[in-house]
Amino acid sequence: MTKSDQIDVKGDGRVVLYKREGLKNPVWQARLRIPNSTGYKIVSTKTDDLRAAERFALNLYEELYIHVRSGGSIKSKTFRQVFDEWVRSATAVAPTRQGGSWDKTIERAGTYALEFFGSKRIDEITASDFSDYWVWRKSHYNRKPPSNGTLKRERTCLVPVFKYAVAKGYIGSVPDTNTPKAPTIRRSTFTVQEWRTITTKMRQWVKEGQKKSTGRDRFIAQQYFLILANTGMRVGELRGLKWGDLRTVQTDGGSRLVAYVRGKTGAREVVFQAVLMST
Which residues pair with 259 in a beta bridge? Predict the structure, then answer.
């Protein structure tokens, strides 16, 4: 195609019409360049009438311009196309961050999402679509209704697909994919009678094991349980506890042992509520 074969409709190189050489009855082709996007959009106007081709190209340009301004891309692909690309890329480049296989992630991401989003353009998928998806998922399953935990794990597997789409320029950002919030249900604690039964049985269990090879392990397990129960420490916090993390403080109720612990929520201090080292 030579320069004389092109018609610059807007005079700025953004909407160009041309006909392909070597065809018996060529129609006008449109090459569109949209601000703030990379590459060109090339489409057939499906007409050999110049004025009709100009109207088609200008209308399409305006549609794409608005689409890009709202976060879309002229490289738009369907969710299924992007998913397939992501699968090839993920499995070819490297294992997961934990060094494992992508198989489980791919299975969770694709089992239901492909059915729901498959033919939808990925740059048209919004937070509203994901809200509809989670509702849909509650009634679409193989064996039993998915729990909120299951949906959260599925969301974690879907996010890499959209991050890949961002990296490839198919979308401007990852849409809000948040799953429905589960109601907060506090775990019930032991009743006074249950607590008395547990501690009494533990003392009996430890005493019975004194002459066995597991006697020391029973005693340690008893103290481990008592520390957790009387301080509110998490298991991970207690695992990392050292003698240097302990100190004694004076309170209105007398001397108390305080532990400085570190866990998933950061560092904090916990107070021992009772004398623990007794059988």
Answer: 246, 270
The whole-model pTM stands at 0.49
Residues 271 and 256: beta-carbon distance below 8 Å = yes
- Going by C-alpha positions, the residue among 164, 190, 158 that lies closest to residue 176 is 158
| CA distance linking residue 73 with residue 76, whole number of Å | 6
Residue with tokens 């340690």: 220
Residues facing 31 on adjacent strands: 16, 42
96, 102 Cβ separation under 8 angstroms: yes
Cα–Cα distance list, 20 to 17, 30, 32, 48, 236 (Å): 10, 11, 16, 11, 69
What is the per-residue pLDDT for 222? 92
Please give the full DSSP string across 116-159, using - where no structure is assigned.
HHTTSBGGG--HHHHHHHHHHHHT--SSSPPPHHHHHHHHHHHH
**279 close to 219: Cβ distance less than 8 angstroms:** yes
